[in-house]
Design brief:
The complex is a heterodimer of chains A (100) and B (177). Chain A has three helices and no strands. Chain A is 78% helix and 0% strand. Chain A is elongated. Chain A has a single domain, classed as Helix Hairpins. By secondary structure, chain A is mainly alpha-helical. Among the domains of chain B are: 79 residues, NADH-ubiquinone/plastoquinone oxidoreductase chain 6, subunit NuoJ (Four Helix Bundle (Hemerythrin (Met), subunit A), Up-down Bundle), CATH 1.20.120.1200; 44 residues. Helices cover 75% and strands 0% of the residues of chain B. Classes of the chains: A mainly alpha (100), B mainly alpha (177).
């Protein structure tokens, strides 16, 4: 069997990749995708911890995270569409002013 | 050792695909690679005796959320990242700030590695405790979800409703409001 530690390492690596994507990329869509990577990394550690404890609670928290991810994607993409309509750009630096 | 091999295969696919997601210039390729990463993660969930989560991962994440992203990318028709002149002269791009950010990143990695190295009881195999039949059964998941987590479940339904209304309001055209 695979030790819990290995799942946690995979989860940490995925979370670090997602964080790097949020900070390094200059495209709103890719930033939202990086947030999805981070949420999935957390999901993996939830399920791994739940399995190690022998309960289903980890899986249930994962469902709630998935629901929040779906809501976040819908609202985030709606905001992206609205911003793109105003500035014709997806670069987050184009939206530094609060009012236009 | 097929289990160990599968674990390394799935986690390798997930990590490499995620790295390529943030390395792509074209968001369309990023979305396709992220779907591959989610598929590999659902393989890991099956190894963790969570088949329902694995299926939800494929259907909800790879099916619904990624299709939503694909629709928006195709709708906006702006596939490539633009690197404007003011982008390179941005104040946050100065070397001092960059060095500070790199230091913070290294610090975060050291901290994660330190926490993992010091954590006790993580070296034991994952699947030793609990009854596999009870953990992997959808019946048990549903029973716990609709009894112990009833309030969270209902709150989630309100969250979905609010998100739906918010998305419609935000993405709707100004003249139609």
């Amino acid at each position: 069997m695979i030790p819990l530690e290995h799942y946690l390492v995979v989860s940490a690596i995925l979370f670090a990749i997602g964080t790097a994507g949020v900070f390094l990329r200059r495209n709103l869509i890719t930033i939202l995708l990086s947030i999805e990577i981070m949420l999935n990394a957390v999901n993996l550690s939830f399920v791994a911890f739940g399995r190690a404890q022998g309960t289903v609670d980890g899986q249930i928290i994962t469902f709630f995270v998935m629901t929040v991810a779906a809501a976040e994607a819908a609202v985030g993409l709606a905001i992206v569409i609205g911003l793109f309509r105003h500035r014709e750009s997806l670069n987050p630096d184009a939206f530094t002013s609060l009012k236009w | 050792m097929p289990e160990t091999l599968l674990f390394y295969l799935f986690s390798g696919i997930a990590i490499v695909a995620s790295l390529l997601v943030i390395g792509q210039r074209n968001p369309m390729y990023s979305i396709m690679l992220l779907i591959a990463s989610f598929g590999a993660l659902s393989g890991l969930y099956i190894q963790l005796d969570a088949p329902f989560v694995a299926m939800a991962q494929v259907i909800v994440y790879a099916g619904a959320i990624m299709v939503l992203f694909l629709f928006v990318v195709m709708l906006l028709n702006a596939p490539h990242e633009d690197a404007a002149e003011w982008d390179r002269t941005h104040p946050l791009r100065s070397p001092g700030v960059g060095r500070f950010g790199a230091m913070l990143a290294v610090l975060l990695i050291v901290q994660l590695a330190w926490a993992l190295a010091r954590a006790s009881g993580v070296g034991t195999a994952v699947g030793e405790r609990g009854d596999v039949a009870a953990i992997s059964s959808v019946r048990q998941v549903g029973r716990v979800l609709f009894t112990d987590y009833m309030f969270a479940f209902e709150a989630t339904s309100i969250l979905i409703l609010v998100a739906m209304v918010g998305a419609v309001v935000l993405a709707g055209r100004e003249g139609q409001r």
